[in-house]
Design goal:
Helix content: 40-55%
CATH class: Alpha Beta
CATH superfamily: Divalent-metal-dependent TIM barrel enzymes
Number of strands: 8
CATH topology: TIM Barrel
Number of helices: 12
Oligomer: single chain
Length: about 325
């Protein structure tokens, strides 16, 4: 017989999955009509699956797309290497884009780690060339954005603010040529770009109309940022939030990505954070990004479905239509 703890977990999971069905229109492959898209676009948030969440299952980009669509997400954030592996194995990018279209799934962003911001000129030049190749690849599948973290500059010395802004602007101009917006990504563990205010200031300093910041619940906590800093920020600067949660223990100085858990299962002030984010204006993308090895050992569809239900539960608690 099922013990009481297991029974409670099953009931909770069933309730979460019921919430997905009750609060969303799940677009089946080939049925993404204008009415469905208009309804989704009228809501305050779009829901996206960052493939880190099911990366441990090593599924490949085709299966990842299928899972995201079946679970009910409107968008995905693939990792660049998964797209590269698809091509190496003989896949055709036009076929991959058609697959995305057929499933009604957009590529809201993509994850890569090129060294575009470092002081070393040779490394930076190689990083920019790598980014051009990656953006070319991603543009062919309709990617809208590209994460630009401070890869290679996570330690001291501290970057010169003006030079960093120039480098980010140069990256934005490269993105203009591909129709992709590089997002300045907050990394809370880094010595550079570890605070939300620093990232926002750097984006503004570029003077580029598409400059924006990719924020993250875990990194806000890890870097010691107050989410309320975002209250007075123009909405265009904050298009995407990597949504997740974290426990109170281990403490901030010891916690790492592996402790990320489902939204609502930790101590992050998610309800208030979503209210602040929504208040800046414009529709926001909530992208589930987890690196939890426990979830990597589970059925990927169950993980994706549970994650979406948990996000929507927080959205409803914040007073919004999910």
């Amino acid at each position: 017989m099922m013990n009481s703890t297991t029974r409670r977990e099953a009931i909770s999971r069933a309730g979460m999955l019921a919430l997905v069905a009750a609060t969303s229109t799940i677009v089946q492959p080939g049925t993404a009509g204008a009415k469905d898209r208009a309804k989704a676009d009228s809501r305050p948030f779009r829901y996206c699956l960052n493939m880190a969440t099911i990366r441990g299952q090593k599924l490949g980009i085709v299966r990842e797309i299928e899972i995201a669509a079946k679970a009910g997400y409107q968008g995905i954030e693939p990792w660049v290497d998964s797209v590269q592996n698809y091509v190496k194995e003989g896949g055709v990018l036009t076929d991959l884009r058609k697959r995305l279209d057929d499933h009604g799934v957009t590529v809201e962003g993509a994850i890569g780690f090129a060294e575009w911001i470092v002081d070393d000129e040779d490394r930076r030049a190689k990083g920019l060339e790598r980014l051009k190749r990656e953006m070319d690849l991603l543009a062919q599948i309709g990617a809208r954005r590209f994460a630009a973290p401070p890869a290679g500059a996570t330690d001291l010395p501290k970057l010169d603010f003006g030079k960093a802004a120039e480098r980010y602007r140069a990256l934005l101009e490269i993105g203009d040529g591909f129709g992709i917006v590089p997002e300045l990504e907050l990394w809370g563990f880094s010595k550079n770009l570890n605070r939300i205010g620093e990232c926002i200031g750097l984006a503004i300093e570029t003077g580029h109309p598409k400059a924006c910041v990719l924020s993250d619940v875990f990194h806000l906590y890890k870097g010691g940022s107050d989410y309320k800093v975002m209250e007075s920020v123009p909405g265009r600067l904050l298009p995407v939030l990597h949504i997740n949660d974290h426990p109170a223990d281990p403490p901030r100085d010891k916690i790492d990505d592996s402790f990320r858990n489902f939204p609502g299962d930790g101590v992050a002030p998610l309800v208030d954070m979503l209210k602040v984010l929504h208040g800046t204006g414009g529709q926001k993308v909530l992208s589930l990004e987890l690196f939890n090895r426990q979830y990597w050992a589970e059925d990927p569809l169950k993980v994706a479905e549970t994650g979406l239900a948990k996000i929507k539960s927080v959205v409803v608690k914040a007073g919004f239509k999910a």
